Amino acid sequence: MAWLQLRMNSTDQQAEALSQAVEDLGAVSVTFVDSQDTPIFEPQPGETRLWGNTDVIALFDAETDMQEVVKGLKALGYLADDVYKVEQIEDKDWEREWMDNFHPMQFGKRLWICPSWREVPDENAVNVMLDPGLAFGTGTHPTTALCLEWLEGLDLEGKTVIDFGCGSGILAIAALKLGAKNAIGVDIDPQAITASTNNAEQNGVADRLQLFLAKDAPKDLKAEVVVANILAGPLKELYPTISELVLPAGDLGLSGILTTQAQGVCDTYAEKFDLDPVAENDEWCRITGKLK
């Protein structure tokens, strides 16, 4: 079955209204895509994050009269002649195509993140089995990669690791498989707790992973290693909370930070931490250091 796709350039102020308009005109699905390829991560529960320049992509049945749809949107003031494109999309086995494009990934010398439908490249490596699911974090994004590479380079034997903003649980699970004695995951989203639980069970480490919603986390949490892959704003805002999680001489790793935001985060944490040189990957970076 073929589909018709209407791609329209919009703005963050207009995208929601445009989405409702195309749904009213018969769209079977609507997707927002950043037209400047600037990713935004981990929205608050119930929040929709939009971008400054947003493409709204609407999918219609192949029998839809797209001239009438375009005419209707223009009448409502949502379309100009040069900001939309109509395309025919052939139906595919989208799940299979997506699976074919997801491959095992290596971080550092010995850590691999592997989807369950692929063969493990090295049976003697540290292999974390993780399928993309409800929560952010599969290793494909530079911020996750930076954190995984950092954890792989630490001596985690016998240590406790806190994954603050655990998402899929990938960092906590990787730490456990790299030798950590136990790990603690904290997140604001119940879906993240569910995803982390399922992924820990799949990797045989559920008995060593404790998970808490942020509002329910014990007040006395401490660990030798703390990693937080969230966003620059929350990292600065939560500095008092995150810094208190680290035991004396413990290690801290922060990511989810654009390189242009690195100095601001470093300035916030430099009071209590001896910071390493900032590590960069694409336009993203990681900040690490030891508690003074």
Automatic annotation (TrEMBL):
User: For this UniProt entry, which residues form the secretion signal?
Assistant: none
Reactions it catalyzes:
L-lysyl-[protein] + 3 S-adenosyl-L-methionine = N(6),N(6),N(6)-trimethyl-L-lysyl-[protein] + 3 S-adenosyl-L-homocysteine + 3 H(+)
> Where is this protein chiefly located?
cytoplasm
Give the similarity note.
Answer: Belongs to the methyltransferase superfamily. PrmA family.
Subcellular location per UniProt equals:
Cytoplasm
Q: Which GO terms describe its biological process?
A: methylation
Q: Which InterPro entries match?
A: Ribosomal_L11_MeTrfase_PrmA, Ribosomal_PrmA_MeTrfase, SAM-dependent_MTases_sf
Per the record, its GO cellular-component terms are: cytosol; ribosome
What are its E.C. numbers? 2.1.1.-
Q: Tell me where the transmembrane regions lie.
A: none
The record lists the organism as Actinobacillus delphinicola
**Top EC class per UniProt?**
transferase
What name has this protein been given in UniProt? Ribosomal protein L11 methyltransferase
Q: What this chain does, per the record?
A: Methylates ribosomal protein L11.
